[in-house]
Amino acid sequence: MAGNWVKLAQKGIEPGARSSHAITVVGHKAYAFGGEFSPRVPVDNKMHIFNLDDHTWSVADVIGDVPPPRVGVTMTSIGSTIYVFGGRDFDHKELNEFYSFETHTNEWTLISSGDAGPPHRSYHSMAADDRRVYVFGGCGNAGRLNDLWAYDTNDKQWIQYPSPGDSCRPRGGPGLAVAGEKIWVVYGFSGAELDDVHCFDLVSEKWDLVETTGNKPSPRSVFCTSSIGKYVIIYGGEVDPSDLGHLGAGKFSSEAFALDSKTCSWIKLKDEAEADEHPGPRGWCAFSAGEIGGKRGLLVYGGNSPTNDRLDDIFFFTPSM
C-alpha cells in the first residue's frame, strides 16, 4: 500500500505559521481556527477559510458567540456545521466551552459550558460520525484524562460513556477516529509516548484493548489522524518529547501508517513524493479528512518542526488502498 503527498499552493489572506490549531473540511472548503506561533500564546480567534478548488485563503466575517483565542483546540464537522471544543487560553487555563459554527451563515453559537458536558481540557481529540461528535482525553485541570463523551446533534445533549479502565492510561495528544461502528483511541502521551490502541464499541458500549499486528508505528503523540473507509490513517507526530516540554521541539516522525479496523493490522504506507512535496517530520499539526479532485485523503496544515519553528504549509495525502 502506498500514498501520494501533494503540496498545495496558497493565495489570499494567509493565516500564517502556527501549531496546536485545528482544521476541518466542509464541502470544498477547509476551516482553520486557533493555535500558536509563540509557545503557549494564542494567535487569534479568526475563522480562516481555505478554498480547496482555487487554493485561496479568506477570513470569515462572523457573527454570534465568537470564542476567545485558544491553543490545543479541536474541531470537527457534521454536514454544514462545525463543532469546536475546549483548548487553553492566554492564562494557560483549560477550557470546556462547546461551540458550533454554521458555515452557511458564519454564525458562532455557544452550545454548552460550565458543568454541562465534558470537563475542561486541551490537547484532547475529537471525531464525528453522521450524528455525534466525540471527545476523548487530553490535559485537564488536574492531570491527563481518558474519558469519552459524545454530543448528539439530534437530541442536543451530551452523553458520557463508560470509563475504559486502567488499561487505557490517561493521555494527551491521542489519535481518535470512527471506523466500523467503533471509536478508536490510538497512542498518545502519558508522561511517556504510548503505543497502545483501544476501541469502544458503540453498539455494546464496551471497551477493548486491541492487540495489533503488522508494521507497528513507534510510540508517539500529537500526530495527524483520520479514518478513510475501514482504515485509520496516521501521519507524523512526536516520537521523543523535548526536555523543555511544550516550550521546545522534540523528535518528530515523517511516516504514514494505516490501521485496518477489520484485521487490526498496521501497514506502513510508502508515501511517494518529491522532496519539496513531502511535509517531512512534524507534529502538533491541524488535520482533517477531505476530498480533492474526487479523491479522499488527509489534509495537513502547519504544525511544529524539529527546529521548533512553526510551519505554514498545506499538504494533501491520498492513500491508495
UniProtKB/TrEMBL annotation:
Its cofactor is Fe(2+). GO terms for cellular component: cytosol; nucleus. The gene is LOC109709602. This is Nitrile-specifier protein 5. It holds the Pfam family Kelch_KLHDC2_KLHL20_DRC7. The keyword Transmembrane does not apply. It comes from Ananas comosus (Pineapple). One of its GO terms (biological process) is glucosinolate metabolic process. GO terms for molecular function: enzyme regulator activity. The lineage of its organism: Eukaryota, Viridiplantae, Streptophyta, Embryophyta, Tracheophyta. InterPro entries: Kelch-typ_b-propeller. Keywords: Iron, Kelch repeat, Repeat. The keyword Iron applies.
